[in-house]
Amino acid sequence: MSDSNDSREFSGQVALVTGGSRGIGRAICLELARRGASIAFNYLKNHSAAKEAEAEIQSTGVECERIRAHVGDEEAVASLVSQVQERFGRLDIVVNNAASGVMRPSTELSPKHWDWTMDINARGPWLVAREAAKLMGEGGRVINISSPGSRMVLQSYFAVGVSKAALEAVTRYLAIELASEGIIVNGVSAGYVQTGALDAFPDELGVKDLADRPTPAGRAVTPEDVANVVAMLCGKDAEMIRGQIITVDGGETVFHR
């Protein structure tokens, strides 16, 4: 928890976090809640994790709404944002964190795998931002969560890496196209973080070991590290940061091992 949380700087604001029931998404929900924002988050399958996340967020003293929705589906996204409007009447912050994908080399992927990954990781954030922009006013924030695999080649990461590269392009385009509406768009690229999402990687790649080892900063990256940067980008001091991808990796991707 950062020292600035006591200020409740986001009091009166509403944040929508996709994929907010676990891992980095949950940490983002909690950080924004500690800073005073009411929280809506979506999830897809794990009802128990969603209920637990909702209770933990509410324990910070803010309102919270959990909504089951598939962000790769246009009608589901429209319903998701509509439910936020019905419950809270406004929307100030959107964090596109939900992600999925099939971890296989390009030669072992089918078009179905490609479509699933791209729909959730790239198309979904565009759909959410498009619908959310109708509710957001001057000073609204959209933060897209990417990964270093958007620009570095990682084993068995083909579809996800390409989808994250697309997401970063979406971030740049939205930053310009939504600027006239007073909406600020940026991205956060999270390095190796020890969450359940790493279970999708084949064991032989040793990704969990990479997430556990100290970075050049002297320790591993945590979900809270990512959440703190997301919160920073949602604050007033970040108003002139537009269309940027901020990497949170403890210096790992600039250090050749």
Specify the CATH class. Alpha Beta
How many strands?
7
Give the DSSP E fraction (strand runs of 2 or more residues): 5-15%
Strand/helix succession: EHEHEHEHEHEHHE
Number of domains: 1
Within CATH, the superfamily carries the name NAD(P)-binding Rossmann-like Domain
With helices defined by DSSP (H or I, 4 residues minimum), what is the helix count?
7
- Label the CATH architecture: 3-Layer(aba) Sandwich
Distance between the termini: 31 Å
Which ranges are low-confidence, i.e. pLDDT below 50, for 5 or more consecutive residues? 1-5
Gross morphology: globular
- Largest sheet composition: 7 strands, parallel
* CATH topology (fold) name: Rossmann fold
Q: Using the CA coordinates, give the radius of gyration.
A: 17 Å
**Major sheet: arrangement of strands:** 3-2-1-4-5-6-7
The share of residues in helices is: 25-40%
What structural class results from the helix and strand content?
alpha/beta
Mean pLDDT: 91
Write a structural description.
This protein is of the alpha/beta class and 257 residues long. The protein has one domain (3-248): Rossmann fold. Helix content is 39%, strand content 14%. It has helices at 23-34, 47-58, 74-88, 111-132, 158-177, 207-212, 223-234; strands at 14-17, 38-43, 64-68, 93-96, 141-146, 184-190, 245-248. The protein has a seven-stranded parallel beta sheet with strand order 3-2-1-4-5-6-7, with helices on both faces. Helix 4 (111-132) links the parallel strand 4 and strand 5.
